[in-house]
Write a structure and sequence with these properties.
The protein is mostly helical. The chain is built from 21 helices and 2 strands. 34% of the residues are buried.
Length: 512
C-alpha cells in the first residue's frame, strides 16, 4: 500500500550539489539557460510540483545501514531504549485522532541523537527516521486544515533538528596533481540521512494547502526565518539545495515576511562583500533572488534600484566571484530587461569593479558585459560608451590571450555590432591604436586573426573614417618616436655631463 502511495508522488532524480533543481527552473527562456543559470519557479503556490532535489520519498522503502554512518542525535542521548518505541501507524487510527497522533510523533522526533559514533542508539535512530518518513507521508496526503497546535509543534520539531552551530570539519589538506582537495570537495554533513527527512517535512509543511499562513506566521516568524537564512552557510550542497527551495516557498506563501527576507539577505551580502568574503550559500541566495526580481512589478520601486546599486553590483568585488557569477549575472540582466535605463548604471558599476590582474575574473566580466549590452538600448549605450570602450581597449590589448579573444568576440553579437555601427565615429578612434598594435605584434595567432577581422569590419563600414584614424595613429606614433628620441638624447647628454664632472672631481682629489 505504501509503495502505491509513493508511486503517485512526483519525484526528482538526485542532482549534484551545485546544480539547481528542475522544480526550481524558471519558465523564462533565454540563452543564459545554456550557461547554467537555473532559476526557481515563480509558481510559488503550486504545492503539487514540489519535489526537493534529494527527495526522501524516492528511498522510503530502501532502508539499509547507510544512515547509520551519518549523524547521531545532538543533545541528550541518555534515552532508555524501552522508552523510545515506535508509535501506531496513521492507518491504524481513525481520522479524528490522526492530528493527535501527528503531534505525538512530532514530539517524539524532537529527540536529538549524536551521530559521531555510528554504533550507538541504532534502534532509536531507525525508529526516528521511520517516524519522520511517516510524518512526511501524512503531510502529503492530509486533508483538512492543520490546527494551531499542530503547526506549533511541527515548527518546534524542525527547529530542534536543523538549527545548529556549524563547526569546521577536520579534513586533511592534500594535493593531488596540484588540485587542493579541500577546495574541491565540500564537507558532507554526517547527519544527512535524518536531516534530509526533516527538510522534506518542512518543505511539504510550508507548501501544503492545509497550512494556513495567517496562523503559521506566528511560528514561522522573523526569528525562524533568520535562523533558516543562517543555515545557507552549510558546506553540504544537498542542504543548501533544500534551503533554497524552502526559502522560495516561504517567500511565496508568507507575504508579510517578504521585506524582512530581502533585508536580511542584503545584510548577509554586505557582511560577505565588505568583511569576510567567505560564505557557502551566495549562489543559492542569488538563485532565489533571481526569481524574486523576475516577479518585480513595473515601474521598479526605488528600494529595488538601491538593492541593485548597493548590493548586487558590489558582489562583483570578491575574488571568489566565479562561485556565484552565473546567478549574479542573471539577476543583473533581469534588471536591465525590466528597465533599460539601468544599463548605464550597471555598465559603469562593472567598470568600477573591473579586475586588473585576475584574467579569469576578467573573462567573466566580459561574458556578463555582453549579456548586459544585448539588453541595452541606444540612448543608454551612448551615455556610457566612452568609458566602456576605453576599458574594452585595455582588454583587447591584454597579453592573456583568453581575455583579448573574449573582448574581440563582442563583435560577433549582432546587437552590439549594430550599436557600434551607429556610434563608430566615437568608438573607432578609441580602439584603433589597440587594433593596430595587436595586428602588428600580438603573440597569439587567434587574437591576431580576430583583430584583422575587426579591422576589416570597420574598414568596410566606413573607409574614410578608418583612413583618418590610421593617419592620426601614424602621426601619434611619429610624435611618440620623436619624443622618445629626444628623451634618449637628453639622457645621453646628462650622462656625459655627469661623467665629465666625475672625472674632474677625481682629478682634483688626485692633485698635489
Amino acid at each position: 500500500m505504501i509503495n502505491k502511495i509513493f508511486s503517485k508522488i512526483p519525484r526528482k532524480s538526485s542532482k549534484s550539489g551545485g546544480e539547481p533543481s528542475p522544480s526550481s527552473s524558471s519558465s523564462t527562456a533565454s540563452k543564459r539557460n545554456e550557461g547554467g543559470n537555473k532559476r526557481l519557479s515563480s509558481a510559488v503556490d503550486d504545492a503539487n510540483a514540489i519535489t526537493a532535489p534529494f527527495s526522501v520519498l524516492s528511498v522510503r522503502n530502501n532502508v539499509d545501514d547507510r544512515f547509520l554512518r551519518d549523524r547521531n542525535l545532538r543533545g541528550d542521548v541518555n534515552i532508555a531504549s524501552a522508552s523510545y518505541e515506535a508509535l501506531s501507524s496513521f492507518r491504524d487510527v481513525p481520522s479524528s485522532e490522526k492530528q493527535l497522533l501527528f503531534i505525538r510523533k512530532v514530539k517524539m522526533c524532537c529527540v536529538e541523537f549524536d551521530f559521531t559514533d555510528p554504533t550507538k542508539n541504532l534502534k532509536e535512530k531507525e525508529i526516528k527516521r521511520q517516524t519522520l518518513l511517516e510524518l512526511v507521508e501524512y503531510l502529503t496526503s492530509a486533508s483538512g486544515k492543520f490546527s494551531e497546535n499542530v503547526m506549533q509543534e511541527a515548527v518546534k520539531m524542525v527547529s530542534a533538528n536543523i538549527f545548529r552551530e556549524f563547526t569546521p570539519q577536520p579534513r586533511e589538506n592534500k594535493l593531488v596533481d596540484g588540485v587542493d582537495l579541500e577546495e574541491e570537495e565540500p564537507a558532507m554533513d554526517p547527519a544527512w540521512s535524518h536531516l534530509q527527512v526533516v527538510y522534506e517535512f518542512l518543505l511539504r509543511f510550508v507548501a501544503s494547502p492545509e497550512t494556513d499562513p495567517k496562523i503559521a506566521k506566528r511560528y514561522v516568524d522573523h526569528s525562524f526565518v533568520l535562523k533558516l537564512l543562517g543555515l545557507f552557510d552549510s558546506e553540504d550542497p544537498r542542504e543548501r539545495e533544500y534551503l533554497k527551495t524552502i526559502l522560495h516557498r516561504i517567500y511565496g506563501k508568507f507575504m508579510v515576511h517578504r521585506p524582512f527576507i530581502r533585508k536580511s539577505i542584503n545584510n548577509i551580502f554586505y557582511h560577505f562583500v565588505f568583511e569576510t568574503e567567505k560564505h557557502n550559500g551566495i549562489a543559492e541566495f542569488l538563485e532565489v533572488l533571481g526569481s524574486i526580481i523576475n516577479g518585480f512589478a513595473l515601474p521598479l520601486k526605488e528600494e529595488h534600484k538601491l538593492f541593485l546599486v548597493r548590493t548586487l553590483i558590489p558582489l562583483h568585488k570578491p575574488k571568489c566571484l566565479g562561485m556565484y557569477h552565473q546567478q549574479l549575472s542573471y539577476c543583473i540582466t533581469q534588471f536591465v530587461e525590466k528597465d533599460c535605463k539601468l544599463a548605464d548604471i550597471i555598465i559603469r558599476g562593472l567598470i568600477k569593479y573591473w579586475p586588473v590582474t585576475n584574467s579569469s575574473k576578467e573573462v567573466l566580466f566580459l561574458n556578463e558585459l555582453e549579456e548586459v549590452l544585448e539588453a541595452t538600448q541606444a540612448p543608454e549605450f551612448q551615455r556610457c560608451m566612452v568609458p566602456l570602450f576605453h576599458q574594452i581597449s585595455r582588454s583587447l590589448n591584454s597579453l592573456h590571450f583568453q581575455v583579448a579573444e573574449r573582448a574581440l568576440f563582442l563583435w560577433n553579437n549582432d546587437h552590439i555590432e549594430n550599436l557600434v555601427k551607429q556610434n563608430r565615429k566615437v568608438i573607432l578612434p578609441i580602439i584603433f591604436p589597440v587594433l593596430e598594435k595587436n595586428a602588428r605584434h600580438h603573440w597569439n595567432q587567434a587574437v591576431h586573426s580576430l583583430t584583422l577581422n575587426v579591422r576589416k569590419f570597420f574598414y568596410d563600414l566606413d573607409p574614410d573614417l578608418f583612413k583618418a584614424c590610421q593617419i592620426k595613429f601614424q602621426d601619434d606614433e611619429a610624435k611618440e618616436n620623436d619624443i622618445r628620441e629626444r628623451r634618449e638624447s637628453t639622457w645621453n647628454r646628462l650622462e656625459q655631463v655627469a661623467a665629465a664632472k666625475k672625472a674632474a672631481n677625481n682629478g682634483a682629489v688626485a692633485g698635489p
